[in-house]
Amino acid sequence: MTAESEPAVRLRRAARALLLDGGDLVLLRRTVPGRAVYWTTPGGKIEPEDAGPEAALRRELDEELGATAGPVRQVFACSEQLPELHRLNVFYVCRLITMDLSRRHGPEFDDPSKGLFDVDRVPCTPAGLASVDLIPETLAAYLQMHAEDLPGLVPGAAPVSADAPPAPRGRPAPPR
């Protein structure tokens, strides 16, 4: 096969949030027809009209969660190679300021073939994150080593010490 006959590989850059809510990480539980349930971080494609990755991240948080976040800090990047797509994911840690799921909007919420985007709060600990099938796998591996470091990387609530009593669990996602 010559280079001329090979399909072009598109590059898709994405900004994704490691969104902290107290001691939990806010994740999207994806239930997609024909696929096992998995969890992923909020975020998505950096659009040409976005002023930059942080602007894209804040737009995606608003669309997917009706959420706002405090200051962000880039902490991790990974790439995924698919047959006709090379996806570059850049992850930013930030703290949840507000979230109103009734404000969620975007084409993915109107298309049943896209599946469900349920919001879960998972303890931001290696054990908590090991309890879900988090993708991409390279992010899951990174968080196994660094989850407990994330709270100290952004302003806000002090990290919880190992002897502190557990924080109350977050609110469950409202029924759809």
TrEMBL record:
<dbReference type="Pfam" id="PF00293">
    <property type="entry name" value="NUDIX"/>
</dbReference>
<protein>
    <submittedName>
        <fullName>NUDIX hydrolase</fullName>
    </submittedName>
</protein>
<dbReference type="InterPro" id="IPR000086">
    <property type="entry name" value="NUDIX_hydrolase_dom"/>
</dbReference>
<keyword id="KW-0378">Hydrolase</keyword>
<dbReference type="InterPro" id="IPR015797">
    <property type="entry name" value="NUDIX_hydrolase-like_dom_sf"/>
</dbReference>
<feature type="compositionally biased region" description="Low complexity">
    <location>
        <begin position="155"/>
        <end position="164"/>
    </location>
</feature>
<dbReference type="GO" id="GO:0016787">
    <property type="term" value="F:hydrolase activity"/>
</dbReference>
<feature type="domain" description="Nudix hydrolase">
    <location>
        <begin position="10"/>
        <end position="147"/>
    </location>
</feature>
<feature type="region of interest" description="Disordered">
    <location>
        <begin position="154"/>
        <end position="176"/>
    </location>
</feature>
<feature type="compositionally biased region" description="Pro residues">
    <location>
        <begin position="165"/>
        <end position="176"/>
    </location>
</feature>
